[in-house]
Here is the input.
Amino acid sequence: MPAKIIVVMSPKGGVGKTTTAVNIATAISNLNKKTLLVDANLETPHVAVYYGFVGFKYSLEDVLNERAKIEEAVYTGDNPNFHLLPSRVAKSGVERSSHKLINVNLYIKDLQDKYDFIIIDSKPSYEIEFIKLIKDANGLIISNPDITSIIEAKKLKEELDDAGISILGLVINKVNSRIKEQMTEKEIKDLTGIENLWKVREDNGVYNALRIGIPIVLSSPKSFAARDIMNIAKQIIRL
Ligand SMILES: Nc1ncnc2c1ncn2[C@@H]1O[C@H](COP(=O)(O)OP(=O)(O)OP(=O)(O)O)[C@@H](O)[C@H]1O
Ligand SMILES: [Mg+2]
Here is the structure.
C-alpha cells in the first residue's frame, strides 16, 4: 500500500506543529512503520534541530533546486524505520525555493511506495496551497486551547473541507489543566466541528528534549507530552 501522507498544519505560528510532527513521526517509526519526515517549512526550518542533527550535506532546498537527488538528502539514524528529509535554507533562498515546492508532489509520489507514512511539517500561511499540491494528503491540524487559535483552526478546517482534503483530526497542544480559562474539549468540538480531537499536555520536558536534541517520546517517554503523543501515534496507525 502506498504511504499515508500527513501534512501537519496550523494557521498560527508557534502552536507546536514541529514538536508534534517530529514526535508523531518518531513514535510511528518506533511502532515498526517505515516513516519519512519531511521539513517543508522553508522559512523557519527547524525539524533537524529537534534531532540535534546539524551536519547534513544536502537538504530539501538542494533537491528542489536540482543540486542533489532526493536519496542524497534523506538521512537515517539508529532506527532504520525512520528517515528524515531536512531543510536548511539561507534567507536569500527562501522565495526562490518556496516557488519550487510546487514540484514536491512529484518527489513525494516517487517515495510513496517506500514508506508506510510520510509526515510533512509545513509552514503557516502557505500550507493550504501546499497541501493542495500533494495528491491524497491528509491534514492534521494543530492548535492551542485558546479562542483565537481555535477560531483559526476552524477556518483552516473549512478551507480543507472546501478543497475536499481529508482531516485526520485536531491536536490541541499545550493543554494545562491548572489554567481554568483554557477551552474545554466540548467547546472546541462544538466550535470547530472536528470530531477527532487529541490533547497534548503542556510539558516542560518538551524544552529539555529540544535542548538535548532527542524527541521527547524517546528522551522522556513517561512524560505527559510523550504519553499523549504516543497515544495519538497509535490511533493514527489504526485510522
Ligand atoms: N506540549 C508542549 N509543552 C510545552 N512546550 C511546548 C509544547 N509543544 C511545543 N512547545 C514549545 O513551544 C514552542 C513552539 O513549538 P514548535 O516549534 O513546535 O511550534 P511551530 O508551530 O512548529 O512553530 P513555527 O510556526 O515557528 O513553525 C517551542 O519552544 C516548543 O518547545
Ligand atoms: Mg515549526
Summary: Residues 17-18, 41, 46, 121 surround magnesium ion (ligand 2) (CB under 6 Å). The mean pLDDT is 93. The radius of gyration is 17 Å. The chain has one domain: 4-238.
